[in-house]
Amino acid sequence: MKLLRSPLRYLAFAAVCGLAACEDDVDASDAPPDPAGLFWDNEWAFEGAYVETNADQTLPLPTDLPLLERIRYGEGGAPPTSDVMEGAKVIFEIDGRVLVQVAGADTPEYFWTDYKVHDEHTMRASIRKSIWFPYDYTFDEPSETLLIQPDAEAGGAVMGLLLDIIEKTLFSGALDSAAAKITELLFEDPRVSQAIDAFLYDLIHGAIADIPAQDPADVVAWLSDVLRQSGIVGPEVPDAVLEAVLTPIVEELLPLDREGISQALVDKILESDLVTAITPDRVERVLSFVFYRRVLERGQTLDSIEQLDIVLERLPPPQD
What we know:
Elements: H1 2-24, H2 37-40, E1 43-53, H3 65-72, E2 89-92, E3 97-101, E4 109-117, E5 122-127, E6 132-140, E7 145-150, H4 155-172, H5 178-186, H6 190-204, H7 216-230, H8 239-253, H9 261-271, H10 280-298, E8 305-314
Antiparallel strand pairs: 1-2, 1-8, 2-3, 3-4, 4-5, 5-6, 6-7, 7-8
């Protein structure tokens, strides 16, 4: 893949330099090397995501050290891994897009993240087409590793990208990967299911101020968006059909107690004929993780991130 991409990149870069040379009447060979070449002229693999949080963290994150320690030593006979992102590759395209190939996937995908390299030490990035935050970066030649340190304000956004990668792995990647395994360990924590149950119960009963849900139709609309955005329900299912299936499901959830309401919702969706793109085991894992993401995005935990360092390892060039 890289062999096909590199000539195009160099041609594009050479064309830009050539135009500049014609305009300024200078030799293009005298121009300093573009620091962005470090990014787009290499392919990278995730080596680690290191997160520090403050006392405001109330719920577990998939990057928490206790969870990572359990996968690093190959718990239960499983092979040891180094990090929750192990197996995922990163490609910085010359046009500014960031592609990620999750563990077990055949091809990289655009994760709605873009970057701009300013100089040999600083870059900017926009995750999910959001605010452009500054990042410091350092490349260590002996270890072939790239350390990327986002601005403190960008911690929640970068965690969102990591959550995107985990979600995509659950949807179509390797279920025996570190990213999938970490979610199993994450959901062993009773705080996770309790938080999801509390969120969905309050949502269904209209108790969340910034999510207008005055009747079952509002809850159905919210669930429809979640199922569409996550890819669990594809475009082949008409909106009218989706609404017709979800309406009685929501009505059946109304009299239920708080505890276990999220599992009841997952079970009812599995019992319907809505999902055909992925297998039932993936549906349950993706949907549970998506619900937990909604909880994290509303609470203090993402705001508690004080530092989030990403370490990438430069991959060797492909052999002819």
